[in-house]
């Protein structure tokens, strides 16, 4: 792709590094920004700079937050004895949109994937196990995407906490195998949370 401007080329190259954005789409987006009022482009740039520089992660669940504790962890109406284990913030948002779950979350920040060089030590697993050891948790709900990596992560955590008195369950497989939670419709995901099954039973299926 030939560019008439080095500045344009640099902007397109940076934009195309975003997931799902190829060079042609990046060019279309950059040209769109150039057609907008200057202040709108600067507002976008400022918002991205601030979110990168000032964003925090909840000290308890590791979700993205503006404060030390996120609004969900601070909410006194949430069931603090129930923790839903998810991969990232997108899964928290997907489950919250179902209005079917009133407990807390624990964001792992990924899933075990040896092919990608991601091991248990790269995830927020230790802090989750510590919560269980302290007796703060009555039930862990594994809500990882039903992929091989998700199942591997669930099983690893299960092995770490199986000697403690905590119930473990997994979302019902109304979510098709291989699907990511964020792309599952709210009704199916909500039913999967409500109809969750004991984790041990999922190992036999």
Automatic annotation (TrEMBL):
Alphabetized Pfam families for the sequence: RecR_C, RecR_HhH, Toprim_4
Residue ranges constituting the Toprim domain according to the UniProt record: 81-176
Bilayer-crossing regions: none
Coiled coil segments of this chain: none
InterPro entries in UniProt: DNA_Rcmb_RecR, Rcmb_RecR, Rcmb_RecR_Znf, TOPRIM_dom, TOPRIM_RecR
GO process terms (BP): DNA recombination; DNA repair
An example molecular function term from Gene Ontology annotations: zinc ion binding
ZnF region ranges: C4-type: 58-73
Keyword presence, Cell inner membrane: no
Entry keywords, A to Z: DNA damage, DNA recombination, DNA repair, Metal-binding, Zinc, Zinc-finger
Job description of the protein: May play a role in DNA repair. It seems to be involved in an RecBC-independent recombinational process of DNA repair. It may act with RecF and RecO.
Family listed: Belongs to the RecR family.
Protein name stated in the entry: Recombination protein RecR
Organism: Winogradskyella aurantia
Encoding gene per record: recR
């Amino acid at each position: 792709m030939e560019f008439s401007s080095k500045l344009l080329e640099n902007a397109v190259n940076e934009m195309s590094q975003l997931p799902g954005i190829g060079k042609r789409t990046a060019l279309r987006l950059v040209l769109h920004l150039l057609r907008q009022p200057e202040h709108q482009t600067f507002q976008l740039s400022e918002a991205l700079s601030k979110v990168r520089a000032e964003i925090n992660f909840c000290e308890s669940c590791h979700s993205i937050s503006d404060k030390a504790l996120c609004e969900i962890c601070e909410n006194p109406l949430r069931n603090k004895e129930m923790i839903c284990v998810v991969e990232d913030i997108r899964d928290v948002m997907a489950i919250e949109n179902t209005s079917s779950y009133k407990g807390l979350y624990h964001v792992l920040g990924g899933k075990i994937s040896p092919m990608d060089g991601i091991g248990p030590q790269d995830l927020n697993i230790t802090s989750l196990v510590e919560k269980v050891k302290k007796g703060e948790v009555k039930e862990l709900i594994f809500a990882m995407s039903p992929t091989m990596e998700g199942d591997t992560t669930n099983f690893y955590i299960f092995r770490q906490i199986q000697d403690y008195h905590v119930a473990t369950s997994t979302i019902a497989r109304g979510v098709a195998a291989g699907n990511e939670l964020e792309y599952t419709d709210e009704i199916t995901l909500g039913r999967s949370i409500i109809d969750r099954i004991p984790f041990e039973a999922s190992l036999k299926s």
